[in-house]
Amino acid sequence: MRIRFSRLQWRIAAWFALILLTVQIGGLVLFAQIGRSSALDDVQARLITGDRVFSRLLDQRSEQLTQAARVLAADYGFREALLSRDGDTILSALENHGSRIDASLMQLYGMDEQVIARYPDEDVIAITRLPQLIETARGKGAATGFSVVQGKLYQLVLVPVLAPVPVAWVVIGFEIDTPFAEDLKRLTGMEVSFVRESASYPRSLLASTLDSSLQNGLIGPATPSILETGSMQIDDVEYVGRVHEINSGEGDRVAAVLQLSLQRALAPWTRLYREWLGLSIVAMGLMLLASVLMGRTIASPVTRLAQFARRVEAGDYMHPPKLASGDEIGQLADAFDHMTNAIAQRESRITELAYRDTLTGLPNRVQFNEQIRAAMEAAAEQQKGLAVLTLDIDRFRLVNDALGHGFGDLLLQEVGVRLREAGVRQRDVAGGLRAVDNAAARLGGDEFALLVPGADADKAKIVATRIALALEQPMNLQEQLVDVRASIGIAIFPDHCTTAEDLMRCADVAMYHAKRNNSGVEVYDPAHHSRNAARLSLLTELRAAVERDELVLYYQPKFALRDGLGLHVEALVRWVHPLRGFIPPMDFIPFAEQTGYIKTITLWVMNSAIRQCALWQRAGLDIHVALNISARDLLQPELPVIFRRMLDEHGCAARLITLEITESAVLDDPRHALSNLERLRATGCMLSIDDYGTGYSSLSYVRQMPVQEMKIDRSFVMNLCSRPGDEIIVRSTIELAHDMGLMVTAEGVETEDVLQRLGQLGCDFAQGYLISKPVSASDLELWMSSSRWAPVLMKA
Question: A single GO BP annotation from the record (predicted)?
Fold first, then answer.
């Protein structure tokens, strides 16, 4: 059977085996280290004990030899023979006593240190330590020591022969040979070797209990440190030793090396190690078998669950595997069962949410796009047209602001119902057109769409008109009647676009064009798109206009209807494009406000207007300059700080600057807006409400605003003399402002009748083309010197 390690059961078995093998190997290595360390400690302890025993044995032997020598020296017959110079008797005594104590040599020296007699009767053995031993014996009565004599190591004992004063010296020597070393081995339990080493002679072995095969290793050149450590390794057998120095009284170094075989000390550990190794092999085999069985037990259910997971991936949630085991695998199978049921329910819910709007029940943008693609394919096959209608509820934000978002949701639901009734299965009387099921959809917010298969532009306009009329019928929501009007855009396939995305975009362009022109229904015109593209291009170029110094400031004077008010002008930004020429503010200001770039433009206007006002001030002309602040700028916390810095930088008096803000700018965030107005007013400038009457604010907000001026919008001023209603509004506004201590400026003054009537109503300033159109700073100075509307003070 071929083992596939990609399978879980074999990987489990392999991991179990690897873990066990790692533990066993680690245990064996640790076991070997502990065994060797323990054996070394035991050997070292035995060597220390053996060294003490060895020293004690040498001391005892010295005492015994000394006592034997004293017995000979005290023998009466020996002394008489010595005094009578009886050589035969002396020699006989030495021979008898030496044989009895098994001495290796016995020599009798006279007081002149000359040999009198010797045993065995051989050549005289020269003892180099003799003077040293005699000197010691003179002081202590006896002397013992070791000496190398003719290449052999002797233990010597020297005692005086007293009669009653010393008349001779008896020297008894015992050779340190292999039998003596064997005796020491039996007593200490260690290998004993006597080694001689000197600078003039090679290392030699005097006596040893080691086998002859091991003795060469002891004195060979491979063990130069034997006398330093006592340790060596011979024929792969490691010995641990201890060196006992022996004082030979000469230049040679003599030492007794006590050794124990480490292999013998390790023998119990080695046996235990082999037994442990065998047990580990058996245990690993059993563990490998158990891990294979365990891996199969785990892998088999997991394999079945994996197969079921692949079926779930394909969308099959039925027949999950049933596992009888009550362990974690069984719990996992139960969890799979519950999970797939929950996934199936959630998928159903997600599908519903992904393709349907929860508020109106209509298809959402995603499903509508799919419907467009399917309808486009059908229209292409049938060679028919296809219309897409997008509509947006006019003034829907006003409904939310005035009546709340809950009411706005009810309105959207009602719009959805009417779209469904107007667009689904209704026969078009004019052309026999039938819409498909679920053709209406909610794209988001207050935007809806309708798909009209088989329609051209004319038929689509009929459907759009029907929808507009259906939506304009009053809606009774929460016992409140609401009128709704929609702007509808139409795009036709394949006349306008050939893809679903482009068709939707073209319909949106037409819808926004209808909303801007207040025309209700518009069919897509490529020119609309071109104008939008041009505006987008223009917006891109606007970002560099400030850096290229393409923006300029024009100033429109205000006519003071009362004496002593001085000259007031309003700073208006203009854009002189190097290629497009003069660009009206309405072509770029709204887009700058939408993108947030209005902040940069406002800062440029503020800085330029303040700089020009300061120049007039230094020229002796007190000209009050008003400039507009957008809603975005008013909510910037750093605006008062920037304004104060510009005043200080250019040296302009704050009283000459008026900041105009619209009342709707305060409504977006009243708390922050009013806080910034207070900080701006604290700088000393004047504040003015611009375009009063066009917003939706209440008088409570006007009362809270720290303003000094109110400007009436031109829509109420232009027809002041021809529309009584406008005159009522203007008169009421002037009276209200004066009661609140505010000055009033009327915008859009284009006739002298209007100007005269404003004077009669008590208005303070008039502004419009009758007085002057916006002019440059240099032209303003000409206007002050030539216009009949210029203040008398300025003419002078």
Answer: signal transduction
